[in-house]
Each structure stands twice: as C-alpha cells, then as structure tokens.
Write a structure and sequence with these properties.
Layout (H helix, E strand, L loop, with lengths): L5 E8 L5 E7 L4 E4 L5 E8 L2 E3 L6 E7 L3 E9 L11 E2 L2 E7 L1
Antiparallel strand pairs: 1-7, 2-6, 2-9, 3-4, 3-8, 4-5, 4-7
Length: about 100
C-alpha cells in the first residue's frame, strides 16, 4: 500500500422498484493494523462522489428506482512510508434495500 494507490469494484443493480444502497464501514474509512492501533485513512467514492463513512453506522450512497451500474473506489490518502508492516483491514458491508 502506498499513497495514491487506488482500487475499485464495479457492481450493478437490476431493479423494478425504488431501492437504496447503504455502506457500513467497521473502522469508519480507515484501514487498521492487525496488532497495533495504527490506521491508514482512505477516501471512498461511489460513482466519483466522495463518501465519508462513520464508524459502525450506515451511510446512504444511492437512492434510485431504475437499474443502474456503479463504481466503488478506494484511494489511500496518507504517506505510508513509515507505517508498520503487516496486515491492514476495514470490513465494508454493502446493503441494497428495496424501499
């Protein structure tokens, strides 16, 4: 991982009714080290729009009534040169709910 590294995932929703897409971030938009309290912040974007997930709270991303395609992107923000080596994680849960 390094500053400026970006990864994305594309997904689509096939719907014939109103729906909402929510995201839950276990660490509130921060990758946490497996053994220390060290964290690495990242930007989260849905279709290019910046999203600020709160820790353990659902964040509304999209509300629509039509089938659609989306891109969820993650960008590492800080310089990670001096971050401890090891495994960093944040669990993201995406929910698509019919309204």
């Amino acid at each position: 991982m390094r500053k400026g590294l970006e990864k994305s995932v594309d997904f689509s929703v096939d719907a014939n009714t109103l729906y909402s897409i929510y995201l839950l971030s276990q660490n509130g938009g921060e990758l946490r080290h497996e053994f220390t309290p060290t964290g690495i912040a990242y930007d989260l974007r849905i279709d290019g729009k910046l999203v600020a997930p709160a820790p353990s709270a659902e964040t509304a991303l999209v509300k629509s009534a039509a089938s659609s395609q989306h891109r969820l992107g993650i960008l590492i923000r800080p310089d990670t040169t001096h971050a401890p080596a090891g495994k960093y994680t944040d669990r993201l849960t995406q929910m698509i709910v019919g309204d």
